[in-house]
Design a protein that fits this description.
This protein has 212 residues and is α/β, with parallel strands linked by helices. It folds into 2 domains: 4-123 and 202-210, Rossmann fold (3-Layer(aba) Sandwich), CATH 3.40.50.1360; 133-198, Alpha-Beta Plaits (2-Layer Sandwich), CATH 3.30.70. Helices cover 28% and strands 24% of the residues. The strands form 3 sheets. The protein has a 6-stranded parallel sheet with strand order 3-2-1-4-7-13, sandwiched between helices. A 4-stranded antiparallel sheet has the order 9-10-8-11. Strands 5-6-12 form a 3-stranded antiparallel sheet, covered by helices on one side. It is globular. It starts with a helix and ends with a strand. The relative contact order is 0.18. The structure holds ribose-5-phosphate. It is an enzyme of class 5 (isomerase). Substrate binds at residues 29-32, 82-85, 95-98, 122. This is Ribose-5-phosphate isomerase A.
Length: 212
């Protein structure tokens, strides 16, 4: 049986097939994406430019010779490759285990083709059943947002020692089964002080590749 890391490498290698020459590549974050970036030099052409969803991915891309552009420098991206924490059969996802959810949503929204790469451990029938939902929050709103999330039925827990690339905090919402991802993504975004939340329902992936 393959280890989780071997499965991540299989799916990351498969994602190479979606990378086109002379396109600016969108890149998410996390351990699966880290493997994907490390495989880029195996392509028969050089990836010249990318937009990264986290500082860590930016450093990893630079380490393999890819120039990293600011998201403001591009209007569209051909393809965006990113992992996820949970994926449903409908293609809804939760993300943000690495606290990069907001930048991931921004870069994903610029892309014409979002390819999500996961190993089989990420498959769920309903979001929230396996992974607490990350919510990025402006620090001064921590308690107010926590109260609102409790009213919605969740149990928010402040993520210790975590400041996002945007200077904010993360609340991880436990015990929160998400029945309607599209509605809940919007409801949480409407709480004052929320920057974004880890439900990717409006920006679903175009394809989810799962290493079984
Ligand atoms: O903030 C982190 C991202 O949403 C990641 O894409 C997600 O947590 C999946 O990461 P990994 O590939 O390490 O499981």
């Amino acid at each position: 049986m393959k280890t989780q890391n071997e499965l991540k490498e299989i799916v990351a290698r498969k994602a190479l097939e979606f990378v086109q020459p002379q396109q600016v590549l969108g890149v998410g974050s996390g351990s699966t994406v880290k493997i994907f970036i490390s495989l880029l030099p195996e392509l028969p052409f050089k990836v010249e430019y990318a937009v990264a969803a986290s500082k860590e991915s930016e450093a990893n891309l630079k380490a393999v010779g890819v120039q990293v552009l600011d998201a403001n420098e591009v209007t569209t991206l051909g393809v965006y490759i990113d992992g996820a924490d949970e994926v449903t059969p409908e293609g809804y996802m939760t993300k943000g285990g690495g606290a990069a959810l907001t930048r991931e949503k921004i870069v994903a929204s610029l892309s014409e083709n979002f390819i999500c790469i996961v190993d089989k451990s990420k498959k769920v029938s309903q979001l929230g059943t396996q992974f607490a939902l990350p919510v990025e929050v402006i620090p001064m709103a921590r308690e107010a947002v926590s109260r609102e999330l409790r009213k919605l039925g969740g149990n928010p827990v402040y993520r210790e020692n975590c400041i996002t690339d945007n200077g904010n905090i993360i609340l991880d919402v436990h015990d929160f089964v998400i029945e309607d991802p599209i509605a809940m993504e919007q409801i949480i975004n409407n709480i004052p002080g929320v920057v974004s939340n880890g439900i990717f329902a409006r920006n679903k992936a175009n394809q989810v590749l799962v290493a079984e």
